[in-house]
Amino acid sequence: MKALEIKNLKKTYKNNVVALKGIDLSVNKGDFFALLGPNGAGKSTTIGIISSLVVKNEGSLKICGIDVDQDFNSAKLKLGVVNQEFNFSQFEKVFDIIVTQAGFYGVPYKVAKERAEKYLKKLGLWDKKDEIARMLSGGQKRRVMIVKALIHEPELLILDEPTAGVDIELRRILWEFLEDINKNGTTIILTTHYLEEAESLCKNIAIIDNGEIIENTSMNKLLSKLEDQFYVIETSNNIDQSFKLENFYCKLEDKNKFTVKIPNGKTLNDLFVEDEISKIKITNIKNQTNRLEELFVRLTSKND
Amino acid sequence: MIKLIGLLTLSNYQIRRIFRIWIQTIVPPAITTALYFLIFGQLIGRRIGEMPGYEGLSYIEFMVPGLIMLSVITNAYGNVASGFYGAKFQKALEEIIISPMPSWAVLLGFISGGIVRGFIVGVVVIFVSIFFVDITVDNILLTIFSVFLTSLLFSVLGLINGIFAKNFDDISIVPTFILTPLIYLGGIFYSIEILSSEWQFISKLNPILYIVNFFRFAMLGSSEIDPMQGFVLILFFTFLFSVIAYTLLVRGVGTKE
């Protein structure tokens, strides 16, 4: 069963901007799916059409098996959307915002109260329930958006840059929370500009550029397309200027740091059997660039 | 059931908003009406005397129904226009649009706020007028029904304004440049019998005149216009503009891209 099925989706705005040129996309139930693309690629238009804020020109769209052209209201019950921009009354109390949102989805008040308490507590907002929304910090407002989208317990949750402008600590809390609800069966579609976020959370990925899907595969398959990877290795002992590896290209950065290229087909294990490596004490090893970021830039620049 | 809960939630949200900003919604009509009564009723009204066609009623008694209508119309209209556009401006409307609420529930939810505000303000104005004049209501049920119908009509008009509004200026242009002149020239402060026949003819083209006189008939038992004309006119326009507002919501005009 698919959580989302899009076929030949097209959208041209009134100002003749072609946002979507006929995209096909399907997301399995239970998936944690990344929808990536540069600014203006068509991500928000796609999400807008799924959530009914944007009217499509052509194509079909099914949410959890329900064709939106036949019964959009039933499909909407299965869907929760966290938009990029805060979209609640800034003058209402947090608790009222959440419970009102539940009411729009037909959730009875008693149930809404219980769920609001559950999700506000999970996201560390329970002590803010009586605060006026405009008094909250950006991160707290972002969490209100997530609670709001979950209050009717949708099967498919779409998050449009949920961690934009959020500090690293809160971002990790949100990641854990999203992983948790995904494990409990909620399908998640995530758009983000933090590619390490997509890489660590998502199982499958689609990259959209200029209104077209240019890549739609599993995260592992996509990452395996990288020919070379560069690692930065830090050591506690000084490295000699003449330091060289027999089977790998390496470049000395300073006396305690060097960069090594691992070509496609070779692994870090191959590196560690090198004689010279056994003579140094490694304190840290990291990717020089984010792998997904490298691929993303390569794929989207190819499409320019 | 889902739709009913959605409708009740939106209505409740709109009504809560009236009380949350009561200084903006309830207090101003009370002060404005008190000033009208004081200046036009007590100070100037004594010199004006009776209006033709309303013999036996003081000027201030003649004015009461008109001032109630003035407040009901402007507040019902303004409540929905600003409520809808405010939700659009804050993007809170998106949450209603993406929810499974049908368009008819969105329509009823927003206009219910306007109707409730129309009633509240009507009661406030009556309460204020008690300080200046002894009020007797000829037909209480028809009076309530008239306030309901008028609030309904102008709430729907306010919603249409809110749907088309692209900025805050857009929700003040219609009330300032169209609604207020029509209301002031719609027989609130005078009987059209004091006008020349040409101006009487022009006045009769103003739909507010019929609405005010329908209410005046319900409250005072006499009217210079056949009240049935007012009743039919309100029903006709309410139906027409409700259909227009509903169609706009279904098509997503002003709410979807």
What would you say this structure looks like, in words?
The complex is a heterodimer of chains A (304) and B (257). Chain A is built from 11 helices and 14 strands. With 304 residues, chain A is an alpha/beta fold. Chain A folds into 2 domains: 2-223, P-loop containing nucleotide triphosphate hydrolases (Rossmann fold, 3-Layer(aba) Sandwich); 228-302, Alpha-L RNA-binding motif (Alpha-Beta Plaits, 2-Layer Sandwich), CATH 3.30.70. In chain A, strands 6-7-8-3-9-10 form a 6-stranded mixed sheet, sandwiched between helices. In chain A, strands 2-1-4-5 form a 4-stranded antiparallel sheet, with helices on one face. Chain A has a 4-stranded antiparallel sheet with strand order 12-13-11-14, with no helix packed on it. In chain A, helix 3 crosses helix 4 and helix 3 (94-104) packs parallel to helix 5 (138-150). Helix content of chain B is 76%, strand content 0%. Chain B is elongated, with a radius of gyration of 19 Å. Chain B starts with a helix and ends in a 6-residue tail after the last helix. The A-B interface holds A 13, 48, 51-55, 72-74, 76-77, 79, 81, 83, 85-91, 96, 100-108, 148 and B 1-6, 8-10, 12-13, 16, 20, 87, 90-92, 94-102, 252, 256-257.
